[in-house]
Amino acid sequence: ITTFLFPLVEHHEKFIFLPRATMKMNQLNAVRNLLAFAIVSYMVSHTTVTAAKCNLNPFYKPICGSDGKTYGNIDMLNCINIHRPFHRKIHVMRKGECAALLCPSYEDLQGPWSSDTIVCGNNGYSYGHPHQVRCLKAFIPTINIAHEGGCTIREVRKSLNRHFRKKACSTPRRQFEKNIVCGHNNKTYVNPFEALCTNPRIREKLGGKCYCPFQVSCEFATRLNKSFHNATRAEKERYIVCGSDRRTYRSHFHLECSRRLNRYLYRVNNGPCKKDKDPCPQWLKFIKTPTPVCGSDKRSYVSYEALLCASSRLRRNIFYVHSGRCIE
What we know:
Blueprint: H1 2-11, H2 13-16, H3 25-53, E1 63-65, E2 70-71, H4 74-83, E3 92-95, H5 106-109, E4 119-121, E5 126-127, H6 130-136, E6 145-148, H7 153-160, H8 164-170, H9 173-176, E7 181-183, E8 188-189, H10 192-198, E9 204-205, H11 213-227, H12 233-237, E10 241-243, E11 248-249, H13 252-258, E12 267-270, E13 293-295, E14 300-301, H14 304-313, E15 320-323
Antiparallel strand pairs: 1-2, 1-3, 4-5, 4-6, 7-8, 7-9, 10-11, 10-12, 13-14, 13-15
């Protein structure tokens, strides 16, 4: 930078050492702009060189740093150290997250229930948070998370198998599980066990509580599917939208209905998705605070964007299962 600035200062020496009152305003602005341009150019070139040294790793393998913060993986920690060379270097304290999660008590397993954190286990039970399933894994090795959102009536009926009505009425989960479902009779039930105990032949309307936005979108999507049987190709293409998961949906209602299983899903554009667009974010997005998600390949990723990037680079159909790292 000095090689660039010294000739510049020497060239404008007669303006710099003259009294300020005698200098022309446009000449002062020219010198100021050139100096600012030189400094910005140096910073941009330095950032580009730094970014090239970072190894982008989309997989979530948490590391606890010496600053007490959790980093998505060792490559993210190294990238932070490279990006801030004048700060104290952050060392690895231990593998895993800094704040160790304690298993909740029996009372904690009953709540709090939130539509943002509820997940469905492969045993047909719904849990208020993925951490609860992770803690139960130590006692029930076969348990895992099936998908984000509460279990449906069909999934609960399948898990109870024979005599499902008797089991649904006698299970304690009928009293404390808060997994709201809507029956085909437009009645809202506090959970699938209560619905099956009341009516063993009940069917579920997708979307949770009756007349909620998800449930209304799912109903409109079902109606469109019936109307598409006699529709022309041009009429069908008019409703097509592209989602943030790089999948093409038949309509905006189909996309909104699918959002109950993917909180990161939103509409990107009207029409089909463009295959030539690279979903991989810039390197700076990888070193932000990790928001881990679990993919269908049972691997944890630093963020939802990292999952889409890995799916594109590996050329595999990896889709989002639930927030938080996978249950190992």
